[in-house]
Amino acid sequence: MDVSNPSLAVECPRCGLLTPRFLDLCRNDGYKLWPSSYVASAAFKAWRDADPARAAASRYDMEIPHHVELVIDYDAKAHELGIHMPPPSKWPFVICAGALFLSLAAIPFSAAVRITLAVIGGVIFLVGVVGWVLVEDVKMFPADETGGEVHS
Length: 152
Ligand SMILES: [Zn+2]
Hints:
By secondary structure, this protein is mainly α. The chain has helices at about 35-50, 75-80, 90-105, 110-140; strands at about 10, 20. A two-stranded antiparallel ribbon has the order 1-2. Strand 1 and strand 2 form a beta hairpin.
């Protein structure tokens, strides 16, 4: 067993396709690569412990997993591509909460319950709409002389 070989995959001697090196059977055609699963496992442990960089590897992998976190700034990317992104807003959640109560009011409960639900839902819904359209949008896009809807 060659511990220095960093590869986790091996070409099967029978089918020639790549298969995990430390599984006793070839994944493609079942060719017996190791005398038993125990021998394969022992060989894998010896191989893994030979290098700390192999600690995250599994017998079932074809390569050592690398956990690379890709952080993408979508706002910057959109700006680069000339795409106008709407400003982030929490108000749609408020509007949805109001819509939830309004739809609960559509269930045939007794009249008093339905009216109460409708009033609660209507108030939350209106607060959301006013906050989003009249307060936040005006703050984000102060009206200019043309008064147009073009946000550039
Ligand atoms: Zn094979």
